[in-house]
From TrEMBL:
This is RH2 domain-containing protein. It holds the Pfam family RH1. Residues 229-294 form the RH2 domain. The keyword Transport applies. Keywords: Coiled coil, Membrane, Protein transport, Transmembrane, Transmembrane helix, Transport. Residues 22-84, 126-181 form a coiled coil. GO terms for biological process: cilium assembly; protein transport. The keyword Transport applies. The chain crosses the membrane at residues 285-306. InterPro entries: DZIP_RILPL, RH1, RH2, RILP_dimer. The lineage of its organism: Eukaryota, Metazoa, Ecdysozoa, Nematoda, Chromadorea. GO terms for cellular component: ciliary basal body; cytoplasm.
Amino acid sequence: MMLPPARTGPHFYKILLCDFQVISALETLESLANNNERENEEILSLQKTVERLEQEKQARQLQTAKFEEELDQVEETYKKDINELRLMVKTLMSENKTLSTTVSSLPNTVESPTTAAMHEEDVKLMFELKEMSHKQKEEIKALQKDVEQYACEVENLQNSIEKLIRQNEELLRKNASLQKQGRMIVEEKMEIIRRLEKTEEANIQLRRMLSDTDRACKDLQQASQLDDEPRFTLAELREVLQEKNVLKGRVMELEEELENLRPGRKEREMEDLLRFGKILPRFFFVRRVFIFHNFLLYGYSFFAIFHCSLTRFY
C-alpha cells in the first residue's frame, strides 16, 4: 500500500501515537501489578489479624467460661453459706423465742448475768451474719459486673472480626477486578504486537516494490541511453520518480518504526522516558526531523526530475 507524500506525516504521527499507547498500556499494567501486590499483602495482613482476633476470641471465651464456672461455684458456695446462716438465724430466733417465753413465764426475778451475756452474744452474732451477707452480696454484684464487661468485650471483638471479613471480601473483589483489567491489557498488547507484525510484512512488500521500481528506473535509463527518442514522457518519468521517493520515505518510516519497536531498544527507551518524562519533546523532535527529511527527499525528487528533463531536451 503506497501513501501519497501529503499523508506521510500524519501516518508517522499515528505510528508514534501507537507507540505511546503501548508505553501507556505497559505503565498501566505495571501500576496494576503493583496495586495487586500491595493489596495481596494487605489481604495477608488482614487474614493474620483475623486469625489473631479469632485466637484472642477463643482465649476470651475459654477465660469467660472458666470465670463463669468459678462464679457458679462461688454462688453455690455463697448460697450454701447463706442457707446455713439462715438456718442458724432461724435456730437462734427460735431459741431466743423459747427463752423469751420461758423468761416471761417465770416470776418477776432479777435476770441472771449468764442470760444477759447469751443474749448479747446472739445479737452480736446476728449483726456479724448480716454484715457477712451484705459483703457477699457486694462481691456477687462485682462478679456480675465483670461478667457483663467480658461479654461486651467479646461482642466488640465479634463485630471487629465481621468488619475485617467484609473488608477482606471487598479486597478480594477488587483483586479479581484488577486481574481482569490486567488480562485485558495483555490482550491489547498482543493485538498491538500482531499489528506490528502486519506492519513488518507491509514493509517487506514495500521493499519489494521499491526494488522493482529501482529496476524499472534502471531499465528506463538504459533504454533512454540506447535509444535517442524517449519512450516515456516527462510526466511519466516524474510520476515514477515521485512514486520511488514515496516508497523510499515509506520504507524509512517502517524501518524507523521497526527499530523503535524492537524489544531491547523499546525497553531502554521506555525506562529513559519513564525516568526523565521526555515523551512529548522526543515526539516533536522526531516530527521535526521527519519534516526536514521529507523536505530533503522532495527536493531531491524535484532535482532528479529537473535533471531528467534537461537530459531529455539536450
